[in-house]
């Protein structure tokens, strides 16, 4: 039989679903220091060094999370402090640093610290269609467009940010917007002409606009 203390902690609403009291940061972490490590690819060392203070300042001063670069392990290490207001700040900071390592601009990646409903989704061209040689090169070219025109059009229509790194594609945005952007990119990979993709994008973005 449930004790009176446990029933007090869990109130059952009229819908029949249990309602739990929100956990405090100390309870979630069990009072222990939490750690995260983010690997640094060799080609991101120079950008990391150049933009270190832009990464360090929001993480250390605003999110109250300790951050350091471990040169021997080639990783950025993060840990909670005694004054970290919420243990979830640690994961947000790890996502922020990871997004920068994937190639996103600091100004775009920092949105992961400020907003709760942003994510990074990654996939490879071969996940959509197996392409080799010139066919693969042409597919990558279709994704970017002349002077990056196609990529910018998809980003602006879906309110996302896209990084095309060789055969890997990374998308930063909300869940719904990522799905729309990914569908457009997949259509281009499968050979759809850019004009057709633009038309579909306009229709979908109009529906998204009405939803908001």
Automatic annotation (TrEMBL):
GO terms for cellular component: nucleolus. Residues 117-190 form the K Homology domain. It comes from the Eukaryota. Pfam families: KH_PNO1_2nd (PF22891). InterPro entries: KH-I_PNO1_first (IPR055212), KH_dom (IPR004087), KH_dom_type_1_sf (IPR036612), KH_PNO1_2nd (IPR055211). One of its GO terms (molecular function) is RNA binding. It is found in: Nucleus, Nucleolus. Belongs to the PNO1 family. This is RNA-binding protein PNO1-like. It comes from Iris pallida (Sweet iris). The lineage of its organism: Eukaryota, Viridiplantae, Streptophyta, Embryophyta, Tracheophyta.
């Amino acid at each position: 039989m449930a004790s009176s203390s446990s029933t007090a902690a869990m109130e059952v609403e009229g819908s029949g679903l249990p309602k739990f009291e929100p956990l405090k940061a100390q309870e979630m972490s069990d009072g222990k220091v939490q750690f995260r490590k983010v690997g640094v690819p060799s080609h991101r060392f120079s950008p990391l060094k150049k933009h270190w203070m832009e990464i360090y300042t929001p993480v250390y001063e605003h999110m109250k999370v300790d951050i350091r670069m471990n040169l021997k392990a080639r990783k950025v290490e993060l840990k909670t402090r005694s004054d970290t207001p919420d243990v979830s700040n640690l994961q947000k900071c790890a996502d922020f640093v990871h997004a920068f390592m994937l190639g996103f601009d600091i100004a775009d990646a920092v949105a992961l610290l400020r907003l709760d409903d942003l994510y990074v989704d990654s996939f490879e061209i071969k996940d959509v269609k197996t392409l080799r040689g010139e066919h693969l090169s042409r597919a990558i070219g279709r994704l970017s467009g002349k002077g990056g025109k196609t990529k910018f059009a998809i980003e602006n229509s879906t309110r996302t940010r896209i990084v095309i790194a060789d055969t890997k594609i990374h998308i930063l945005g909300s869940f719904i917007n990522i799905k729309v952007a990914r569908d457009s990119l997949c259509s281009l990979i499968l050979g759809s002409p850019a004009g057709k993709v633009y038309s579909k994008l306009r229709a979908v973005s109009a529906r998204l606009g009405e939803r908001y």
